[in-house]
Amino acid sequence: MGPLPFSQLPGMNSLFIDFVENPEKVKDLYPFQPSIEQRDLPHRMDLCELLQRQNAIFENPHAASLVEKLSRSEALCVITGQQTGLLTGPLYTLWKALTALRAAHQAEKETGRPCVPIFWMASEDHNMHEIANFALLKPDFEIQNFSLKEHFFLNRQPTGSVSAGNPEIRKILLRALSEIKVPRLKECYSSGTLAQAFARTLLWLLHDFPILILDPSDPELKKLAAPFFAKFFERKHRLLQLLREQNEKLKARHYPVQVKMEENVLPLFFIQNGERSHMTVDTPTNAITPEALSPSALLRPLFQDFLFPTLAYVGGPAEIAYFAQLHPWYEAMDMKQPRLLSRASLTLLPAATKAFLDSKKLKPEEFFIREDILLDALLNNRSLNLIRAEIQQLNETMKQRLENIKNIAAEIEPTLAKSIETSERKVQYQIQKMEKKAFFAAKRKDQTLFQQVRSAKNVIYPDEKVQERHINIFSFSSRLPELLQEIYEKIELPAKGHQWIEI
Question: Relative to the CA of 79, which of 100, 389, 422, 476 has its CA 20 to 30 Å away?
């Protein structure tokens, strides 16, 4: 079963599709240095010490060897990242990490230089709804959704600093853990912050894979970036102008502007009293220390590339779209833009789902339509088809006869025509209602097929979302963490389409 072109996957933006399928068309929006230059990092050893300290807290078994590798002057890295989602959030978080691991391994073979994969936790993001929103696919292929109550994510507290013992968080975890039979998860979320719990969970899942995790909220990391922030403030007006110009170029080419910025708002927050607030061009900066600064999504790539010797960044479709907005900033900040790689895009197909698809000669992508339409096509009920044929004939006849009646009635009294139109709509409504009743009656007669379609839909397109954007990896807890090794070996680089992986 070959990959599905991204252009046939729901929800893909046109810029990302061209980046993957028509790269020549957008090469001016994604310039990167084809040669690998030796980069002097004065703060390299300080950065390594910080990574060693953080990863010891996260209980990373590979920390010492990876930090030693990164400490070498010729070492490079491949970076990816994501918000600190509960239980790692939807599947694509893992797909990002596995893609970065594959890319780093491939880079070492191609360049002969050490290359370390880094997972950058977006621990200062304040979108609690996003980090707590995921679903489990239960053994019977029913879906169980999890999300926070709305009041909890109206404040702007960095999500990574929220306690894993927060009562609202515990409610979600208790519900989820009653379904997931993995004792290690309870340990991961037994203490510390959500960022620490996320890191411990991710490292347990990837225990056979050497990867470093970074929490960028660390004040010591911000101090290392003091020269970067100083240069940003010095050039902020020029950078905002470049962003406006680049956004206009994208609009002129009918590409989406992924990240919209309000006038005179900087792509930077400051954290005060535990809340994250936007900075504007007029915000006084003399009293704000680097430790209080927090880059937004647009500035974060440059922040990380100042800190690390980045060879490549692994991103999802939305990230790749906003890289097209910010690339002029690299030159303006005297920096080199790294390569940009699309993360692997995958749907996992359990054996029962694959068997049903094969029995009905269905392709997985055929489930990207509404369930009732697909079921309708599969039912092939003779009586239902006869009813529909009769209804279609009735509609055609009625339409012609009513048109004749309206013309005659208009000669008697013009207002009668409108009255007849109203009656026609009421008749149409009743006919449609009759057709729906016939459909649902046929569906009830074939409950087995209905359940098979529902189950396959929940696997492939749960709640009208692509699997990787909704379902959590612990839906497959009985096969973890070994399952990730199987998936890693099947990931195709570079990603040219959406893969279907049988498990």
Answer: 476
Q: What is the pLDDT of residues 472-488, one digit of tens each?
A: 999 999 999 999 999 99
φ, ψ at 89 (rounded to 5°): 70, -155
Q: Angle CA(386)–CA(388)–CA(392) in degrees, nearest 5?
A: 120
Q: Quick one: pLDDT band at residue 2, thresholds 50, 70, 90?
A: confident
Residue type, 294: S
Name the residue among 139, 12, 95 with its Cα closest to residue 499: 95
Report the distance separating Cα 329 and Cα 335, nearest Å: 8
Other C-beta atoms lying within 10 Å of the C-beta of residue 57 = 14
Q: Which residues contact 218 (CB under 8 A, 6 or more apart)?
A: 50, 54
Q: Find the mean pLDDT for residues 80-108.
A: 97
- For the segment 368-395, what is each residue's pLDDT rounded down to a tens digit? 987 777 777 776 655 566 676 777 888 8
Question: Which DSSP string corresponds to 347-381?
Answer: EEE-HHHHHHHHHTT--GGGGSS-HHHHHHHHH--
**Do the bridges between strand 115-122 and strand 212-214 make them parallel or antiparallel, or are there none, so unpaired?**
parallel
Residue range 234-255: average pLDDT?
Answer: 96
CA pair distance 308, 76, nearest whole angstrom = 8
| CB 310 within 8 Å of CB 463 | no
- H-helix or E-strand spanning residue 277: strand 275-280
DSSP 2: P
Distance CA 307, CA 309 (A): 7
Cα–Cα distance between 388 and 365 in angstroms, integer? 27
Rounded to 5 degrees, φ, ψ at 470 are: -140, -45
How far is 471 from 204, CA to CA, in rounded Å?
Answer: 19
Tell me the Cα Rg of the chain.
27
Q: How confident is the model at residue 415 (pLDDT cuts 50, 70, 90)?
A: confident
Indicate the angle between helix axes 236-252 and 317-332, nearest 10 degrees. 130
Structural contact between residues 120 and 304, judged by C-beta atoms closer than 8 angstroms: yes
Residue 183 CB burial class (10 angstroms; 0-12, 13-18, ≥19) = exposed
Q: Is 52 left (phi over 0), alpha (psi -120 to 50) or beta?
A: alpha
User: What is the model's pLDDT at position 424?
Assistant: 78
| Cβ(314)–Cβ(79) below 8 Å | yes
For residues 198 and 161, the answer to whether their CB atoms sit within 8 Å is no
Domain spans of the chain? 49-221+300-316+338-349+471-502, 351-465
Considering the entire predicted model, what is its pTM? 0.86
pLDDT single digits (tens) 428-472? 888 788 777 766 776 666 778 888 999 999 999 999 999 999 999
